[in-house]
Design goal:
Blueprint: E1 7-9, H1 14-24, E2 28-31, H2 37-42, E3 50-53, E4 63-65, E5 69-73, H3 78-83, H4 85-90, H5 92-97, H6 104-109, H7 112-118, H8 124-131, E6 135-140, E7 143-148, H9 149-152, E8 153-155, E9 158-159, E10 166-173, E11 179-186, E12 196-203, E13 210-217, E14 224-225, H10 227-233, H11 240-247, H12 250-253, H13 264-286
Parallel strand pairs: 1-3, 2-3
Antiparallel strand pairs: 4-5, 5-10, 6-7, 6-10, 8-9, 11-12, 12-13, 13-14
Helix pairs in contact: 10-11, 11-13
Bound molecules: flavin-adenine dinucleotide.
Length: 287
C-alpha cells in the first residue's frame, strides 16, 4: 500500500519544529529516521496530516561527554552509537546493545530518539535507558522539561511525550568506577526484534552483587525492571548458587503476554535462561 496524503515540512531549528507541532496540534508527526514511521504510513497504521522532518536540525545530533553525564542527541543514528569510542568507553551497555538493533541499513538511518519515542516494548535502547537511569530532555511550547526513564515509558508504544513536544536528547549519568554492564537477547534471527532481552548494570565489588538494575524487554508493555530479582541478588556473593536462587523471583517480576513469536510460558522460560546467562557474563566482565 502507499502512504495516505500528507503535507511535509523541514524545519531548520528546534524552535521552528515546535512551532509546526503547536500549529498542527495532534495532526503532525515528527519524522526522524523514518524506519518505523514510514512503514506505519505505508500500512496505514498512521495517517498524520503533516510530517515534520527533523533531519536538518544539527543541534539534535551527536554524542557529548560532560563532567557527570553523556548526552545522546535524539537524532543520533544507531550506527553512530555503534562506532562511537565515547559510547564504548562510558556506556558499554549501549555499545553491546546497539548491534542487536535491526540490520545495518536500518541502523544507518534509525535514530536513538526515534527508538525511544516509538517505545516498542521489544526494543533494546529503551531498556538500556532504564537500566542506566537516563533522563530524557524534552522541548515543548512552555520550554524544556526533564523526565526520568522510569517515568518516560508509559505503556505499549506510549511515552511521556505530548503531541506538541520534541525529544531533544537523553542524558546518561557517567557510571561510577567499578560499574559493570551485561546485555543479552534471544531473537529468531539476528536483527529481529527480541523475543526476550535483558540489560543489566551494577556493581560486583568485593565479589558481591550490588546496586543492580536488571531490565527486561519483550516481556511486557514497556521495559520492565525486575525489582524482586534485584533484591534477591543485593549484597549476595556473586556465585552461580546466588544466581540460581534469584532466578526463582522472576515470576514475581514478569507477566509476559503471548505474542506472534512465543507463548507466555515460553517467554517466562526464556527470560530465566537468558537472565542466568547474562548474569554469568556480568560476573566474568567484573572479574
Ligand atoms: C525490519 C526492521 C527491523 C527492526 N528491528 C529493530 C530491533 O531489533 N530493535 C529496535 O529497537 N528497533 C528495530 N527497528 C526499528 C528501528 O530501530 C527504528 O530506527 C526505530 O524504531 C525508530 O527510529 P527512527 O529514527 O527510524 O524513527 P521514525 O520512524 O522516524 O519515528 C518513530 C516514531 O518516533 C517519533 N519520533 C522520532 N523522533 C522523535 C523526536 N525526536 N521527538 C519526538 N518524537 C519522535 C515519530 O514521530 C514516530 O512516531 C526495526 C525496524 C525495521 C524496519
Amino acid at each position: 500500500m502507499k502512504a495516505p496524503r500528507f503535507a511535509y515540512a523541514r524545519p531548520a531549528s528546534v524552535a521552528e519544529a515546535l512551532a509546526l507541532l503547536v500549529e498542527h496540534k495532534g495532526d503532525a508527526r515528527v519524522l526522524a529516521g523514518g524506519q518505523s514511521l514510514v512503514p506505519m504510513l505505508n500500512f496505514r497504521l498512521a495517517a498524520p496530516k503533516v510530517l515534520v522532518d527533523i533531519n536538518r536540525i544539527a543541534a539534535l545530533s551527536g554524542i557529548a561527554v560532560a563532567k557527570d553525564h553523556v548526552r545522546i542527541g535524539a537524532l543520533t543514528r544507531h550506527a553512530e552509537l555503534e562506532r562511537s569510542a565515547d559510547i564504548a568507553r562510558h556506556l558499554p551497555l549501549i555499545a553491546q546493545a546497539v548491534p542487536q538493533v535491526a540490520h545495518a541499513a536500518i541502523r544507518n538511518r534509525g535514530t536513538f530518539g526515534g527508538s525511544c519515542a516509538l517505545a516498542d516494548p521489544a526494543a533494546e535502547l529503551p531498556a538500556c535507558a532504564l537500566a542506566l537511569a537516563a533522563t530524557f530532555v524534552i522541548a515543548g511550547p512552555k520550554g524544556e522539561r526533564r523526565v526520568a526513564a522510569k517515568d518516560f515509558f508509559a505503556g505499549l508504544y506510549a511515552t511521556a511525550l505530548r503531541p506538541d513536544e520534541l525529544l531533544l536528547a537523553a542524558e546518561f549519568p557517567l557510571p561510577k568506577p567499578g560499574r559493570v554492564s551485561a546485555f543479552g537477547e534471544l531473537a529468531r534471527r539476528h536483527g529481529d526484534y527480541a523475543m526476550v532481552g535483558i540489560a543489566v548494570h551494577g556493581s560486583n565489588a568485593g565479589k558481591r552483587f550490588s546496586d543492580l538494575h536488571a531490565v527486561f524487554f519483550g516481556v511486557g508493555d514497556r521495559p520492565v525492571r525486575a525489582t524482586n530479582f534485584e533484591k534477591a541478588l543485593e549484597g549476595q556473593p556473586a556465585t552461580q548458587k546466588t544466581i540460581e536462587s534469584a532466578l526463582g523471583k522472576l515470576d514475581a517480576d514478569l507477566d509476559p503476554r503471548a505474542d506472534l513469536q512465543a507463548s507466555a510460558a515460553a517467554k517466562r522460560h526464556l527470560a530465566r535462561v537468558l537472565a542466568g546467562r547474562v548474569l554469568n557474563q556480568f560476573m566474568v566482565a567484573a572479574a
